[in-house]
Amino acid sequence: MANEKGLKELTITRTFDAPRELVWKAWTDPKLLKQWFGPRGVTNPICEVDARKGGEIYIVMEAGPELGPAKGMRWPMRGTFDEVVPYERFVLTGNALDDKQGIMLENRQTVILEDIEGKTKMTLHVVVTKVTKDGERAVAGMQAGFTQQIDKLGEFLMRAR
Q1: Which residue, of 19, 22, 56, 138, has the fewest CB within 10 Å?
Q2: Residue ranges of E strands in the chain
Q3: Are the CB atoms for 16 and 125 separated by under 8 Å?
Q4: Is residue 141 part of a domain?
């Protein structure tokens, strides 16, 4: 949905049957994050995370064969952690990059984790803050992409418990 400034915004809330510490680690440990990050059909050959205030994240998603003609395409993203409260929340300014590492799309992601009797309620809030003409396609697919990503996180957590 678009907000009052015309920028795209979405919120996804899920409750996972996994402890909050594991959900936090899935978001912040590059070895775990690379196993589920991104929409269906992508892998993450590059996944670097420094989950502390001012720390950076750099992920390159690569399309697999299930994405047909897009197979082999790479979609890099880079960001900075603006706020980090371990096991509770982080705020990240992220950028989708073009082939020359220029910013096509900038968004602000907030992830909040709440312990609910041994399960974890996760709220992901994303607001697109800037978008170029080249980034409009990514914005159009944002809801589907993030929904698939969170579905993959849930599947990962079921295996990792």
Answers
A1: 56
A2: 9-16, 42-49, 56-63, 74-85, 89-97, 103-116, 119-131
A3: no
A4: yes
Residue 133's contacts (CB-CB under 8 Å, 6 or more residues apart) are none
User: What percentage of the chain carries pLDDT values higher than 90?
Assistant: 84
Q: Taking CA 34 as the corner, what is the angle to CA 30 and CA 39, rounded to the nearest 5 degrees?
A: 140
Domain span at residue 109 reads 9-160
Summarize pLDDT for 69-97 with one digit per residue, the tens.
999 999 999 999 999 999 999 999 999 98
Report which residue type is found at 124.
L
d(CA 78, CA 95): 5
* Weakest-pLDDT range from 10-19, 31-40, 47-56, 97-106: 97-106
CA-closest candidate to residue 47, choices 81, 71, 78, 87 = 78
**Joined tokens for residue 56:** 């950076």
Residue 2 lies in a domain: no
